[in-house]
């Protein structure tokens, strides 16, 4: 019997989080190993992210890391969630994805975002100011034109080997991102667990305004969010704690630390602001037993009519993280009790 849960592809975004006692090199090796593991579990895509000058995140060069992941895997689609286009020249991005698509034909996804560096120092080092995000629309046109051969910003310039290739392009929705995705005829990636009402309104606008393009004939919606599955609700909740504490610390101290074990976070005496931020970071995620998560996901997918779900879960213990993804793979195949 058909159901949204069984019929929806599930994919993975890994941010190459560092863990206490480990360096960035180990985090990157863990990402490549994790890609092989989730490929074996049957996930559809594996995406990596872009962060600059963030101590707790090693993934600063997503196209380089995507190449390593693609070389280490054989079936799973590989891409970025996403390359922050305002940080780069569109020509360079087109060339990088052209090389990736040429080396791994039919397996590369180009996920794009509009964020710029989050501090003045990072933006200065990147050579980009806050205003760079305002040129995102024009940058998308230029970038896509390098693949189609239709870009007019630099008429004599070609992006080899990108020209003529068609890696799927996805737009990450932040603010007006859903409207831009519709205008450019691109698949949309949008947070699907927190702020559900706003998400559903944005998805409705996207589907209504979508204009078919050479990149997508119809709207395509990818929901993204944290999903933690364990044999009990409490164990699933514990999986959320390391990432939530890292987020809380970053918002109260301005530094994004490495992921710490659950036990060390649970033993902390938090200040009032830390506790408030921690509880905020713990809220709004899907977590629980296989049966609970299956029901919640089924309901969310029915309400949104999403075409795909991108799972973004991080935690300190890699074995527990992989088990969560394994249980999720079982329930999305239609047998939550079998988990």
Helix-strand blueprint:
Elements: H1 4-7, E1 10-14, H2 24-40, E2 45-48, H3 62-72, E3 77-80, E4 83-84, H4 90-103, E5 108-113, H5 120-126, H6 136-148, E6 169-172, H7 177-184, E7 188-191, H8 196-209, E8 221-225, E9 227-229, H9 233-253, H10 262-266, H11 272-282, E10 286-288, H12 290-304, E11 308-311, H13 318-332
Parallel strand pairs: 1-2, 1-11, 2-3, 3-5, 4-5, 5-6, 6-7, 7-8, 8-11, 9-10
Helix pairs in contact: 2-3, 4-6, 7-8, 9-11, 12-13
Q: How do you describe this structure in short?
A:
It contains 13 helices and 11 strands. The chain is α/β, with parallel strands linked by helices and 339 residues long.
Helix fraction?
40-55%
CATH class: Alpha Beta
Give the strand tally: 11
How many domains, as an integer? 1
Radius of gyration: 20 Å
Query: How widely separated are the two ends?
Result: 19 Å
The name of the CATH superfamily reads Luciferase-like domain
Structural class: alpha/beta
Number of helix segments?
13
Strand order of the largest sheet: 1-2-3-5-6-7-8-11
Q: Provide the CATH architecture.
A: Alpha-Beta Barrel
What is the overall shape?
globular
Looking at how many chains there are and whether they match, the oligomeric state comes to single chain
Low-confidence segments, given as residue ranges, are: none
Average of pLDDT? 92
The helix/strand series, from N terminus to C terminus, equals HEHEHEEHEHHEHEHEEHHHEHEH
Main sheet characteristics: 8 strands, parallel, barrel
- Stated plainly, the CATH topology is called TIM Barrel
Verbal overview:
- The protein is α/β, with parallel strands linked by helices and 339 residues long.
- It has one domain (4-227, 288-338): Alpha-Beta Barrel (TIM Barrel).
- Helices cover 46% and strands 13% of the residues.
- The protein is built from 13 helices and 11 strands.
- The strands form 2 sheets. The protein has an 8-stranded parallel β-barrel with strand order 1-2-3-5-6-7-8-11, surrounded by 5 helices. Strands 9-10 form a two-stranded parallel ribbon.
- Strand 7, helix 8 and strand 8 form a beta-alpha-beta unit.
- Helix 12 (290-304) packs across helix 13.
- The chain is globular.
- The mean pLDDT is 92.
């Amino acid at each position: 019997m058909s159901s949204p849960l069984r019929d929806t592809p599930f994919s993975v975004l890994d941010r190459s989080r560092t863990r206490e006692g480990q360096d960035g090199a180990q985090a990157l090796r863990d990402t490549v190993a994790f890609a092989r593991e989730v490929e074996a579990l049957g996930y559809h895509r594996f995406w990596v992210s872009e962060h600059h000058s963030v101590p707790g995140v090693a993934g600063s060069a997503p196209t380089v890391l995507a190449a390593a992941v693609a070389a280490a895997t054989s079936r799973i689609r590989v891409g970025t969630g996403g390359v922050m286009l305002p940080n780069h020249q569109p020509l360079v991005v087109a060339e990088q994805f052209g090389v990736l698509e040429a080396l791994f034909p039919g397996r590369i996804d180009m996920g794009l975002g509009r964020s710029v560096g989050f501090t003045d120092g990072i933006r200065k080092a990147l050579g980009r100011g806050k205003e760079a995000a305002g040129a995102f629309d024009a940058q998308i046109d230029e970038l896509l034109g390098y693949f189609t051969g239709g870009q007019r910003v630099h008429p004599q310039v070609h992006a080899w080997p990108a020209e003529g290739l068609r890696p799927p392009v996805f737009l990450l929705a932040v603010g007006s991102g859903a409207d831009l995705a519709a205008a450019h005829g691109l698949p949309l990636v949008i947070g699907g667990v927190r702020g559900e009402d706003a998400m559903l309104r944005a998805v409705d606008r996207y589907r209504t305004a979508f204009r078919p393009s050479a990149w997508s004939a119809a709207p395509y919606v990818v929901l993204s969010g944290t999903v933690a599955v364990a044999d009990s609700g409490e164990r699933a909740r514990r999986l959320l704690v390391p990432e939530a504490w890292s987020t809380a610390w970053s918002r109260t101290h301005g530094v994004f630390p490495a992921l710490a074990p659950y036990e060390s976070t649970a033993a902390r005496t938090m200040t009032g602001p830390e506790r408030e931020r921690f509880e905020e970071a713990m809220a709004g995620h899907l977590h629980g037993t296989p049966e609970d998560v299956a029901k919640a996901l089924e309901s969310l997918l029915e309400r949104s009519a999403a075409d795909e779900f991108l799972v973004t879960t991080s935690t300190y213990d890699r074995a527990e993280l992989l088990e969560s993804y394994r249980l999720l793979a079982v329930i999305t195949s239609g047998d939550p009790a079998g988990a």
